[in-house]
Amino acid sequence: MLTLPTITWGDPTADRRALLVHGLSSSAETWWRMGEALSADGWFVTAVDLRGHGDAPLADDYSVAGYVSDVPRAAGGRAWDLVIGHSLGGAVATVASAVPDFTERLVLLDPALYVPDSEWAGVRAEQLADLDYTAESLRASQPHWDDRDIAAKVRATARAGTAMIEGTLDDNHPWSVLPQLYELAIPTLILTGDPAVYTMLPPALVEPAVAANAHLGYLAIPGAGHSPHREEWPATIAAIRDWLARY
């Protein structure tokens, strides 16, 4: 278990507390817009640098279980009121939510719950190539991202190392956290990318889980790819706020 660096937004005495868990080769900083939005809504928001990411220490174990062991519990022994996880962070948050009193609500942003073996080599190569991002190359591939998203992601990939990327992928191969989705017993909102653009959790995988588990809600964000909170921010935060108003 490692102690993770954090960034916070909002009033620490706020009644509602949220935890943000980033994706592979990202960092707490990349949650800037979510942190600002939720804190404006009255939440105290904490984002972590996962092991091997941002300012967090390196590790020998990059399994999902290893990542989960580091994720903090809310202060005072109480559960988080909300956890939001993106990509790898979605897998980590899904598994962590099996721990009693971890969180009352869960939002998964295009979570990396399953990678078919047929796509494994391609995903591995793509993630390693992402380490070479520059502001120019990322802007070319992600024209809809805000400038702050570009800058934060470039800083995050510059601090991510090959060993962490390879460890995360290899320590979790074959990659499947999908069974845990069926077992979630808390209100959970799954927001994926548009299947016509790109998503790591296509309808063929998520719809059977939603049909089997009444705790799950699901929405594909039109026009979004793997990062709905960066690519289609207004629709993404509107969907989260609408869901929170009901749960």
Concise structural overview:
This protein has 247 residues and is α/β, with parallel strands linked by helices. The chain has a single domain (6-246), classed as Alpha/Beta hydrolase fold, catalytic domain (Rossmann fold, 3-Layer(aba) Sandwich). The protein is 41% helix and 14% strand.
List keywords for this structure.
247 residues; alpha/beta; Rossmann fold; 7-stranded mixed β-sheet
Description:
- 41% of the residues lie in helices and 14% in strands.
- The protein is an alpha/beta fold and 247 residues long.
- It starts with 5 loop residues before the first strand and ends with a helix.
Task: Catalogue the unreliable spans.
Answer: none
Strand content: 5-15%
Structural class: alpha/beta
- CATH fold name, please? Rossmann fold
List the strand order in the largest sheet.
1-3-2-4-5-6-7
Characterize the overall form: globular
Q: Helix and strand layout, with pairings?
A:
Elements: E1 6-9, E2 16-21, H1 32-40, E3 43-48, H2 64-70, E4 82-86, H3 88-96, E5 106-109, H4 117-129, H5 135-141, H6 147-159, H7 162-170, H8 178-183, E6 188-192, H9 203-212, E7 216-220, H10 228-231, H11 233-246
Parallel strand pairs: 2-3, 2-4, 4-5, 5-6, 6-7
Antiparallel strand pairs: 1-3
Helix pairs in contact: 2-3
